[in-house]
Amino acid sequence: WRGNVxxxxxxxxxxxxxxxxxxxxxxxxxxxxxxxxxxxxxxxYTALAGSAAGVCYWAIPFPADTVKSKLQTDxxxxxxxxxxxxxxxxxxxxxxxxxxxVGITAARAAPAHAALFFAYEVVDRxxxxx
Length: 130
Description:
Blueprint: H1 4-33, H2 43-59, H3 62-73, H4 82-98, H5 102-129
């Protein structure tokens, strides 16, 4: 159960950012390009929107993920509260400490989430035909 609160602190805003970014980006493309409905948007754009969503999923709640990882793996934080660990990391390492590793995580997320949303839209469009 260690890191459960931290996991929720990452997952809730992360998922809001993920789905919100995807839908806003896709809707923006739809309107800007003059497509009548979401299913008219070419699949390549769904990959672009998915890529943006993946980056936002990780970039926004990354400090919570840092705290979660420290709670789960660093013995000096065992049994401590989320906010205590957050303040300790902030005091010792600054904001940079909370975001250490975000660059490579976002770089990994971009193609992975592009593929995920592309595949989702392909399957959804196929199922709509049934």
